[in-house]
Amino acid sequence: MDRFQEMQVFVAVAQDSGFSAAARRLGLSAASVTRAVAALEQRIGTPLLVRTTRNVYLSEAGQRFLDDCRRILGDLQEAEDSAAGSHAQPRGQLTITAPVLFGQLFVTPVLVDYLGRFSEVCVNALLLDRTVSMVEEGIDVAVRIGELPDSSLHAIRVGEVRRVVCGSPEFFALHGRPEHPQDLERMPVVSSSAIGQIRNWTFVEAGEPLSVRPVPRLVVTANQAAIGAACQGLGMTRVLSYQVASNIDAGELEIVLADFELPPLPIHVVYQGGRNAPARVRSFVHFIVSALRERPAL
Fold first, then answer.
1. What is the per-residue pLDDT for 257?
2. Which CATH fold topology does 3-83 show?
3. Is the dihedral of CA 109, 112, 116, 118 positive or negative?
4. Stated pTM of the model
């Protein structure tokens, strides 16, 4: 077998978690599949699979190699399709990234609809609350919240979100409503380290920045936990507006200090390649841009 065939065999074994199942799917003998993977491991010089009596698992090197194989095979298929005149048909591996909660609320439903329409595309979604390098980590499409640095990447603005302070109606009935950001320094708050503002909360007053330092009764590492605690009346919290849109609509939370909010943060869909991007990238960008622009919360 050539190297591309060996890659295809390895991907099949990894997906089916076994040599026999992969052999049946590929129409090969189990011995041929075993030899192909062994040849790969010998040439690379490290085990790609961990064999037990019952199962086959990817090693750490095997997981990295699997991601690379999917990308390489997808690019090869894209090149063949382009040469054959069928470049418009999306297929292959698509890797995207988005913030965790944003991805759960808005991106995952779009992915489900997209995959239902394009059966030859597979998606690897990295939902992370950190900015990943699209070039270094092989990301095709990213959803970014905040101002973008200058780069060669293409970006399409799809909306914006506010940084809001909110609390439950029961909390405000008991403690009163803050009239000025400095009131937060003497009132109960819940802080989330996920937005990097455990100590200082920044606002704007008369066009000038204003920083206050609340003393949180509870610090959590996830925005959703802070929102849940605020809904239960423990204190006010500060999150992005899309994260509490449903809670606001349901009357579980109310926004305060809106006159002191910082300017909204833009939301962009960022991608590599421009007009030369593979069909799967171009089609998904069009799909998600249309979907996100229709969301009232954004």
1. 97
2. Arc Repressor Mutant, subunit A (1.10.10)
3. positive
4. 0.68
